[in-house]
Protein: IMP dehydrogenase
Organism: Kineosporia babensis
Amino acid sequence: MQILSEISRTFGEYLLVPNLTTANCTPEAVDLSAPLTRHPVGESAQIRIAIPMVSAVMEAVSSPRLAIAIAQAGGLSFVHQNQPIAQQAEMVAAVKRNKAGFRHSEINIRPTATLAEVAALLEQAERDIAVVTDDGSPTGRFLGLISLRDFHPQRHDLNAGVETRMRAKADLVVAPPTISLSEANTLLWDQRLDVLPVVDNQGRLASVVLRRDYELHKRFRNESVDDDKRFRVGAGVNTRDYRDRIPALVEAGADILCLDSSDGYSVYQSDVLDWVRSTYGQNVRIGAGNVVDGRGFRYLADAGADFVKIGIGGGSICITRDAKGIGRGQASAVLDVVRERDRYAGETGEYVPLCSDGGILQDSHMAIALAFGADFLMLGRYFARFEESPSALVRVDDQFFKEYWGEGSARARNAARYGQASGLLFEEGVDGYVPYAGRLDENVSVTLAKIKATMVSCGSITLRQFHDSATLVEVSHQSFLQNSQDIRLRERPSGGRT
Ligand code: IMP
């Protein structure tokens, strides 16, 4: 038995002390891009993201819709693995069917459906326009568009068919699949369109170009896309069925995989990494974890992991520390692993990116985690609050919440992640709610603005500079308490603390 001499600390126990801000150090100059895959020191990683955020490998978080929204913002999503292989592969394929600017149409309806049905569909999806195809599928024969502006319950019989009120193809501007994105955007603006349907020469719908995506592109500019401009997406895998799951995910187009386990310092992860390298060489990129110290990092880095994920017990829905007495404060864990990562880079010339996973309760914790040396952050609670997350929106009294449950809860029954038999004898996560926060792009813009402002105060315009030059200080128990009291006083009943 040994007892580590240092105390296990979390991000909220530190503050950043400003460094000199020079004239070229402005929020506009800050580059938040981060590597996702291991690479020789001094070279660029094969896969990078423009913002250091990825979404958690969780059923309540990473759906195709959220994955597209994150990729548009410049991050990446990892579709969860606690589901049948074919279903997970289909989710990955659904994201990959979308090219930046050209979307696979999500809201589609048959012409024979009733106006009541289209109204319900639009309400449920929180959209105001649907595409009409002969079979109601995203690749059916394109017939027209119907929006909430085309009918009104008080003026029109809701039992009438969609075809009675839709704007038919003959009256619409449509584009051929050969159109470039900039030509499509010109058409959108010249013709004052909200949606431009792209239709092939058999008359089938190929994709749609949305005015909203143009606005998003101008705001974020650096979507996560592959060489064919398709959105990037990651996928979780486990140490049990990987021989079947990984080929299906690779076939579906997953850009990167991530071993999803609460404790990744195991021979099972090494076996999966060996199998991936012997089967695919470097053509399949895969991260591993989770670990909380330098030994775990070294083991997985030696085994060939593309990135290593840090964190046990810090997740907002996590009760692993209560259930098993295992874990480590996230700040201490990141600090220890970063030191080992830097030693490893010095010895081998290989830089292995680090992902800090879980325990981000406020936006300021993101800046602190990055200052500690994490390359990017995996977030569950943060993304679960947004419109695009897959969980249900519920109203309690006058407030809206989204459901959010842990992968180790009885609801998820993710036995593979927790190394339990399929029955899940005991829980390691809770099933609860998080305050609804609206659209992802709006929230992420604000969070990024805060991180950039912090970096500017600390005199850094890249994450590497930030890590190398950040000055951190531990917060005393007293100032910690005062700070928390202050937050309690300011917190409005409807507000989530971010
Ligand atoms: P959050 O961002 O603090 O909500 O943490 C999300 C992270 O918690 C995930 O990426 C997982 O690593 C971890 N996690 C997910 N489900 C559970 C669970 O049921 N128990 C413990 N940890 C979990």
